[in-house]
Structures are given as C-alpha cells and as structure tokens.
Design goal:
By secondary structure, this protein is mainly beta. It has no helices and 9 strands. The protein has one domain: SET domain (Beta-clip-like, Beta Complex), CATH 2.170.270. It has strands spanning 30-35, 39-44, 53-62, 82-83, 92-95, 103-104, 110-114, 120-125, 134-137. It is globular, with a radius of gyration of 15 Å.
Length: 153
C-alpha cells in the first residue's frame, strides 16, 4: 500500500470541463529514454505546437483510505501517485501509459489535465516543443528529491 497523502501527491492542472466529443487519442508523439541525472523520462518524438495533446491515458484510482501512514523512507509507490479529487475513493490515481514517467521542472513545458473521456488524463504542451526535447511538468508539491540544477527555479 502507498503512503502518499493527498497533501503531498503531485497535482495535475486544475480540472476542466470535458468537451462533448473526444477526438481520437494522440499516437506516436512521445517516447521514453534515460535522462542524465534523472533516470527515465519522456521526450517528444517530433516537434509540436503549444496546446497540442501529446498523450491521453487512463488512470487507476487509489482511495486515500488504502494509504498507510509510516515514517520515512517513502515507498516506490509514493513516487507514482497523483492527487485527483476530493471525492471519496477517488482522491489519488496512478496514471497508465507514460504518465508516471514525466519528470519535474520548475520551468515546465507540459501540463497534466483532465482527459476528454471519464477517468483519463491528458498531457498538453504549454509552449512549442522541439523533437527530442524532454517533457516536464511542475509537480506543485514539496519535492522529496533534489532536482537537477537545470530544473531549479
């Protein structure tokens, strides 16, 4: 069981109303690779414009009642939970696809948003992104690791 609370879980961007008809999910825009100093990370396969949806993936709910309070060190699961909502049994999620491999940056180039279908999350470009560029978002929580120098404010 995970130990992350909703107070410390990274937060996606504020939830937005879903469009009525969802476009087909994007395919072939992202891949993963080893990022020096970080481990695994996600990169753009080709150049994309601001506002492009790069990935859409389902999420798995992790009810807060399933979390176990414990002292440090954090578990592996702690690093892979996102805050989702205040609704009972839907407080935290684990993202599928590449969602849990996006690294943190205080200068992000993507945001995680509520996907157009129920129980999905989308990755959207905050600015134009070059092919091969690492895709990062701001975890918007107290970090449990030391960010690499290029990702510090």
């Amino acid at each position: 069981m995970a130990t992350r609370s909703r107070k410390s879980a990274p937060k996606p961007a504020p939830r937005r109303a879903r469009p009525r008809a969802a476009a087909a999910p994007p395919v072939g825009l992202v891949s993963w690779r080893v990022i020096p100093g970080k481990g695994r990370g996600v990169v753009a396969v080709k150049a994309v414009r601001k506002g492009t949806e790069l990935e859409r993936s389902p999420v798995i709910y992790v009810p807060e009642r399933d979390l176990v309070e414990r002292e440090e060190p954090a578990t592996v699961h702690d690093q892979y939970l996102l805050w989702w909502s205040d609704d009972p049994d839907r407080e935290l999620v684990m993202g599928c696809g590449f969602l849990m491999l996006y690294n943190h940056s205080s200068r992000p180039n993507i945001e995680l948003t509520d996907g157009p279908e129920p129980d999905t999350m989308s990755v959207v470009a905050l600015r134009d992104i070059k092919a091969g560029e690492e895709l990062t978002y701001d975890y918007d929580t107290e970090l449990w690791f030391e960010p690499v120098p290029s990702d510090r404010p």
